[in-house]
Amino acid sequence: MPSEEGPSTRSVHAASARDPVTGSILPPIVESAAFAFADLETWQKVALRQAAGDTYSRNSNPTERQLERKVAALEGADAGLSFATGMAAIHTTLFALLEPGQRAVTIRDAYGATYLHFTQILPRFGIDCEVCETEEEEEILAAI
């Protein structure tokens, strides 16, 4: 009976493949900001996500996709999503989960930009925010 791979084995081998061009067993770090295309039509399909590929590294690049696949494999998830900053991750998560008319709860001692996001940005989109005192566990539980 085969055993399930442990976290150390998964961290090395999960979502890994030999590079078809170089034969490298480690993913290359792609430093290019822009990518070449045979013609405008191909670029347009990639830009509109109708075909696989990358147009500009600010939007996506092969190294980023490899990181996302690796983290997803380590977490046992179907897919992963990476961000350049913590606030980008927080913003995306909040707007993916919340809709106008819903309520979010945060603590007064949250990271400054996070606190402002809850108290200044979310209300602009019809999402109410309740701020609780950090050390008041019962207040937080009641708000949730």
Features of the shown structure:
144 residues, mainly alpha, two-stranded parallel sheet, 6 helices, extended
Structure description:
- This protein starts with 6 loop residues before the first helix and ends with a helix.
- The chain has a two-stranded parallel ribbon with strand order 1-2.
- Helix content is 40%, strand content 7%.
- The chain is extended.
- It folds into two domains: 7-75, no CATH class; 86-143, no CATH class.
- It is mainly alpha-helical and 144 residues long.
- The chain has helices at residues 7-13, 40-47, 62-75, 86-97, 112-121, 137-143, and strands at residues 103-107, 128-132.
Order of helices and strands: HHHHEHEH
User: What is the tally of helical segments?
Assistant: 6
- Overall, the morphology is extended
Mean pLDDT: 90
Adjacency order of strands in the biggest sheet: 1-2
Beta content comes to: 5-15%
The figure for the number of domains is: 2
Gyration radius, in Å: 21 Å
Helix fraction, binned, reads 40-55%
Low-pLDDT ranges: none
- Cα-to-Cα separation, first versus last residue: 45 Å
- Compute the number of strand runs: 2
Task: Report on the biggest sheet.
Answer: 2 strands, parallel
Query: Which class do the helix and strand fractions yield?
Result: mainly alpha
